[in-house]
Design a protein that fits this description.
This protein is α+β, with helices and mostly antiparallel strands. It contains two helices and eight strands.
Length: 132
């Protein structure tokens, strides 16, 4: 068993956590803030697909829940699943959105840092949308 290097990226949003979860848990809203998941997100035959930055991807989302869990798996090619832990929790009267980024095998330090910056930009876009 091995562990991966991880980076926690979070952002505070001045909205009730349930409102943040309700918005962020709808896959159709993702193109409005999650550029890392690409564009043209659609559901066909019970499966979500998108055009990612490096080509077509499949995405499997956690079921709606009462705990703020927005975990999902990105599947860029058959046999490869990238686990994305994502949570919305209460932070006073607002919320905290917490994303865990794992450095997958073969990922360079530069790519890991660039992915962390990308996630931070996406979370900032979510904040801007929900605080507007």
């Amino acid at each position: 068993m091995s562990t991966f290097e991880a980076r926690i990226i979070s952002i505070s949003i001045d909205r009730d956590w349930r409102a943040v979860y309700d918005f962020a848990s709808v896959p159709e809203n993702l193109p409005r803030w999650a550029s890392g998941l690409g564009s043209a997100l659609e559901k066909a035959n019970g499966e979500w697909t998108a055009e990612g930055p490096e080509g077509p991807i499949r995405i499997r989302f956690a079921e709606r829940n009462d705990f703020g869990v927005l975990d999902h798996y990105v599947i860029p090619e058959p046999g490869v699943e990238i686990y994305i832990p994502l949570r919305v929790i209460a932070n006073g009267t607002g919320s905290e959105v917490i994303f865990t980024l794992f450095r997958v095998p073969g990922m360079s330090g530069e790519r890991f840092a660039a992915d962390a910056e990308w996630v931070a930009r996406d979370l900032a876009a979510l904040k801007a949308l929900l605080e507007a």
